[in-house]
Amino acid sequence: MYSYIVNGGKRLSGEIDISGSKNASLPILSASILNKSIVKLYNVPDIEDVHVTIKILEHLNCKIKKIKDKLIIDSSKMEDKMIPEEFMRKLRSSVILAGSLISRFGKACFSYPGGCDIGSRPIDLHLSSFRKMGIKITEENGKIECITNGIENTQIHLDFPSVGATENIILSSILSDGKIVTIGNAAREPEIVDLCNFLLKMGAKIYGMGTSSVKIIGVKRLKSISYSIMPDRIEAGTFLVATCMTKGNVKINKVNPEHLKPILYKLEEAGAIIQTEENSVTIRMTKRPNKLEIKTLPYPRLSYRYASYIWKLTFNFKRNFYYNRKYI
């Protein structure tokens, strides 16, 4: 069992580079198989979820070469296989591969995320959306099989703006060759926009990305490209809050300040002094943070994760949440 021992009591200061986004990398890795050729990805984070996704792709006979933060993915000889339960247990978001497999092979077979089909299932919205697209779904003995002879023209209105369901609908309809799928109440997160930008560069037709109404017109084929993953706004938000908690002074590089607006506004309200440039944010806190009121709503408003970080900052400050002795 891993553990972290933090000896605190010091202000954070200096500069830090932010790595590539995990929540953008995983769906883009899934989408990389759609061109049936080679994709080169840059700024891929070196994290366990990415490692598991690579293992899944290799299990499906993709050839992958890793050079630092660069991945070269060759899916030209990819095989249609079931995603093993051991991978689904390790990585719940591996369900996003279903959309790409449906788009490429006309079918996908996998176990329930977590290996159990009892009780509330986070993929129900994915499956109901697939059915509306004309995909036949069989659920038996903890396994899910999705089969289609072709996506149907359809309009899907999501019950809530689910990131995963939005991504799976987009991925499953990309190679439908002229069919039109419209998503209402679509998720609007920057990671979805990054996925769409990746697909557009390959030759996909997607309209309205970043809004609540997204339209996909299927194409016949996609081309090989190189693409750089967006920076991780959750990682950046963590360093922003940690700097405020320690009354520090930190410059955060390789970020998109537009993605950080919700948390930047709240940290300014808490008393932080913030300066933004094109690809960086400098934050300085000279006093104890002010108390805040927070409401959590889907993006582009304050996200749950950002809100939880700020809550720890404002209400647990006396308890030294990250540090074991009083601040200096």
Describe this structure in words.
There is one protein chain. The protein has 328 residues and is an alpha+beta fold. The protein folds into two domains: 13-18 and 231-319, Alpha-beta prism (UDP-n-acetylglucosamine1-carboxyvinyl-transferase, Chain), CATH 3.65.10; 22-228, Enolpyruvate transferase domain (UDP-n-acetylglucosamine1-carboxyvinyl-transferase, Chain), CATH 3.65.10.10. It is built from ten helices and 15 strands. The protein has helices at residues 22-31, 48-59, 85-90, 97-105, 124-132, 163-173, 190-202, 233-245, 261-269, 304-315; strands at 13-17, 38-42, 63-67, 70-74, 107-111, 136-140, 143-147, 154-157, 180-184, 205-207, 213-217, 225-228, 249-253, 273-277, 280-284. The strands form four sheets. The protein has a four-stranded mixed β-sheet with strand order 1-13-15-14, covered by helices on one side. A hairpin with a 2-residue loop joins strand 3 and strand 4 (70-74). Helix 8 (233-245) packs parallel to helix 10 (304-315). The radius of gyration is 21 Å and the shape is globular. The two termini are 32 Å apart. Mean pLDDT is 89; it is low at 115-119 and 315-328.
Q: Summary?
A:
The chain has 328 residues and is of the alpha+beta class. The protein has helices at residues 22-31, 48-59, 85-90, 97-105, 124-132, 163-173, 190-202, 233-245, 261-269, 304-315; strands at 13-17, 38-42, 63-67, 70-74, 107-111, 136-140, 143-147, 154-157, 180-184, 205-207, 213-217, 225-228, 249-253, 273-277, 280-284.
